[in-house]
Description:
By secondary structure, the protein is of the alpha+beta class.
Amino acid sequence: MFSRNSLLLAVLIVAFSTFAYGAGFIGVAGHYAPLDGYPTIVGTLNLNNSSMHETGLNKYAALKGFVGNAYNTGWSTGANVGITSGSAATSGVTGLAPATGQDYTAMSGNTVFFGRSFTATQSLVMYTWGGDANMDGYATTDDDDLWINGYYDQVANPTKNDYHWIQGDYNHDGYVTTDDSDLWIASYYTQVANPTVNYAPPAGVSAVPEPSVVVMLLAGVVSLLCIARKSRKG
Ligand SMILES: [Ca+2]
Ligand SMILES: [Ca+2]
């Protein structure tokens, strides 16, 4: 006869606590662990249709990597560890644009992001049209001009693989190719058909965090169930 003599259930939940800054925006505290030196993260942070301001300094490379990791097959299915957007995966014409504060300002002309100030070396991730290279919330030929610049630079430097969203790498593989321009074309024609749809940060969004703390992500849930069976010798 077999009987269950032990049951061990261990659940590890790694939650990122963030403050909600209003619709369409997520502020992630600077101590966001994976960006502070941990070699990996154990889940997928799904921003859906929100944007993010990572307040740690000089974390852009890591953050870009996390976005790229969850996007490395194009519009992510969310299956990969990293930062993704379920909304982008569903729509096929939107995406997550990572940039440093400095580059965001250079591209968009904006010095605030959803009402928040940022430093040059902090990191922003903007939910916007796929192919919105200048991160102004619209898919236009201005973006295609940036892609063209990136593309010809890529042609001249075929092994270079550290391009950024603002240079036309919309699928986050590090290269600027026609795969990226195909994403821009899809978003551009959707934009043309829906001219009022844009992802520009709304003016006048309060920078004061709402009082409630929301748990954004159960980044890892590890369950260990050990059922030991023993036989009872007669
Ligand atoms: Ca644009
Ligand atoms: Ca690319």
